[in-house]
Specification:
By secondary structure, the chain is of the alpha+beta class. The protein has helices spanning 2-14, 60-70, 82-95, 105-114, 121-137, 140-150, 160-168, 177-185, 190-193, 199-215, 221-228, 245-259, 261-266, 277-300, 351-360, 400-405, 409-419, 421-431, 452-460, 498-514, 569-584, and strands spanning 32-35, 41-45, 270-273, 309-316, 322-326, 368-371, 376-380, 383-385, 396-399, 467-469, 474-478, 484-487, 492-494, 528-533, 539-545, 549-556, 599-604, 611-612, 620-625.
């Protein structure tokens, strides 16, 4: 009876296994295309060459490095490493779950050609059976050659010839030891270790492979040391990005995780995105021109060796759809996305979040607060803290509205002391700030690092009537048969009152009309926003919005150094934002910011904050709650 059960189980597992007699005829499939919102073709993801090369053409260092890393017993086992499987079982038991592990090169080839990447026990058994069959029909060298020509190496590279071309712009037989080790390192986690995605991780992984090659005497100590100190110089010109490269990288990483690299690069998918290519072009032009002007000023001050960087991201206020994304000055020089991955201090660009929380706590914008020097005893690490205004000047009693418009530090610190830093940090998280925020008084001055993307999304809450939206870039993914594989919809939730959102919007409009954002007054549409400058002019930001579009700009140095004296958010970042918005909103229908029934316009004396029943010269028209 047991024999019958085993036989039945074996038949059940093997009845749907593919025939492997002619598996070397396996062919890559169709191109995946990515489109912008207006139907613009942004990128094509595909195997550029996948030119099969003979095993003799592949450098010995690459073959040996890959075997040392992936399957040291390759020339000894019969397709499955029994000892390795037993070790993996022990790890599974200790981990309390299934771990991939213990796959030989032959098993990996079987999975790549015939099976899914889903981690299940049944798939592992099928993988082992196929591996045994492959080993019976083909020699080790034939298996290794096919593996090296078919396996995925990251960034769209299938096969070693494609990897050599995409990463280094050369043929595989021209690779040196360092480059061979890097490519040999890729199969373990290609999407993560690709030098076009994360150069530091790729370098770290390459060094591990070199160490294993040294430990197994594949290379000498001299060869090891020389290769270890070789810099990685990936050839980004070979990357398949057509347009909006930082955006393509941003969505590509997410899609690889959700769909798998094989389907993404070989499945002939059609991917529809939120990106507006006309706005993208405007963003790229604005960043390029703004940074060129900034660099020229820096050179005039004698900082010719420093090259400033910048980033811009724009989202639709009502949906969170990403409309434009620039992650740096030149993608081919640096693919690091400063719009989504760089965490920098926002400086005074954080203050609107503080003031919005105050408005929600029923602090009216005409409330008076003291702008005068103050010392907080033992406030930071047991030491006294004496914050200062950027201008080093103080005006005494001032309204919240004017304090925000002029970006006064002391009133902001006094305000967060009244509200409690922890409640402000919690409110920021509700608006969409996911980065860790230090719940101390200096939070009011933007000392906790955040990304440009999350800060811009937080600002979008204000023109969106208190509703937070989650930024997204992919609308829909469709396969070759027209079936929808993935579909994203706007994710929304109310995080503050409509009245509170309208009041903080009114305050931020005043930043442009009367405060630090005055240079943007030339825009003919209703706009609002806030500048941000960090200590020693290390970061300059402007985050702002129209009724439809929220956009954020950051400028600075990757090294964290200073941009130079007077390079504030108003001078270094705001011109970029203004140039982008001037183009982005010119074809949009003219709109006003929404004024809900819960608030009302009144006339205020800006010097005293008192509400006046009559209109008159010198009075300000402001929003307050009914």
């Amino acid at each position: 009876m047991c024999c019958g059960i085993l036989t039945g189980s074996f038949i059940g597992l093997t009845h749907d296994l593919p025939q492997i007699r002619e598996f070397k005829s396996f062919q890559p499939s169709a191109v995946t295309r990515i489109y912008g919102a207006q139907g613009t073709l942004l990128a094509e993801l595909f195997i550029e060459k996948r030119d099969p090369v003979s095993l003799e053409k592949i450098p010995d260092f690459l073959k040996a490095g890959l075997i040392a890393t992936e399957d040291r017993g390759f020339y000894k086992h019969s397709g499955v490493d029994i000892k390795g499987i037993l070790r993996a079982v022990v790890r599974d038991i200790r981990a309390g779950g299934f771990v991939e592990g213990a796959s030989t090169i032959t098993q990996q080839l079987a999975k790549t050609l015939f099976l899914t990447s889903k981690k299940t026990l049944v798939r592992k058994i099928k993988e082992a059976i196929l591996a045994f069959q492959i080993e019976r029909r083909y020699t080790k060298d034939e298996i290794l050659e096919l593996y090296l020509n078919q396996i995925y190496f990251g960034s769209g590279a299938y096969g070693v010839e494609s990897a050599a071309s995409i990463f280094f712009g050369k043929s595989v037989d021209q690779l040196d030891l360092s480059e061979c080790a890097l490519i040999a390192a890729m199969p373990r986690a290609p999407s993560r270790y690709s030098p076009l995605v994360n150069k530091d991780l790729a370098l770290e992984r390459r060094n591990i492979v070199l160490k294993q090659m040294r430990q197994t005497n594949i290379i000498s100590e001299t060869e090891y040391e020389n290769a270890l100190h070789r810099e990685i110089s990936p050839d980004k010109h070979r990357h398949h990005v057509v347009k909006a490269p930082y955006f393509i990288d941003y969505i590509q990483k997410d899609l690889e995780e959700k769909l798998g690299s094989s389907l993404l690069y070989k499945g002939g998918l059609t991917i529809y995105t939120t990106l507006s290519y006309p706005m993208q072009e405007a963003a790229e032009d604005a960043v390029e021109n703004g940074l060129a002007a900034l660099e020229e000023r820096m050179q005039q001050r004698g900082a010719a060796s420093l090259s400033p960087q910048g980033a811009l991201v724009a989202i639709a206020v009502d949906t969170g759809a990403i409309l434009a994304m620039v992650g740096g000055r030149d993608y081919l020089q640096s693919s690091f996305n400063r719009a989504t991955s760089a965490k920098r201090q926002p400086g005074s660009a954080f203050k609107p979040i503080l003031y919005a929380h105050a408005i929600e706590r029923d602090f009216p914008q005409n409330m008076m607060i003291l702008d005068a020097p103050i010392v907080f005893k033992k406030a930071h690490a047991g030491e006294d803290w004496k914050p200062e205004n950027f201008s080093k000047t103080y005006v005494g009693e001032i309204t919240l509205r004017k304090a925000l418009s002029l970006s006064k530090n002391i009133p902001a610190v006094r305000l967060i002391q009244m509200l409690g830093p922890s409640t402000v940090a919690q409110f920021a998280r509700e608006l969409g700030i996911e980065s860790t925020l230090s719940a101390n008084l200096s939070l009011a001055l933007g000392t906790s690092e955040v990304t440009l993307m999350e800060l811009t999304a937080a600002y979008a809450v204000f023109p969106n009537g208190g509703m937070a939206v989650q930024p997204y870039g992919v609308v829909e993914v469709v396969d070759k048969q027209g079936q929808i594989l993935l579909q994203n919809k706007s994710k929304k939730k109310f995080v503050m009152s409509q009245g509170g959102a309208a009041i903080i919007t009114d305050m931020l409009r005043n930043v442009i009309q009367e405060g630090t954002g005055k240079s943007a007054r030339f825009l003919k549409w209703p706009v609002a926003g806030k500048t941000g400058t960090t200590d020693q002019y290390k970061d300059a930001l402007f985050i702002g919005f129209s009724p439809d579009i929220a956009a954020g700009v950051w400028t600075g140095l990757d090294t964290g150094g200073t941009l130079g004296n007077r390079e504030t958010g108003a001078r270094a970042a705001l011109p970029i934002w203004s140039a982008f918005m001037a183009t982005a909103i010119q074809n949009q229908p003219y709109q006003y910011f929404d004024i809900p029934d819960s608030v009302v316009y009144v006339n205020m004396d800006p010097a005293t904050g008192r509400i006046q029943t009559d209109s008159g010269p010198g009075l300000e028209r402001i929003l307050i709650k009914k």
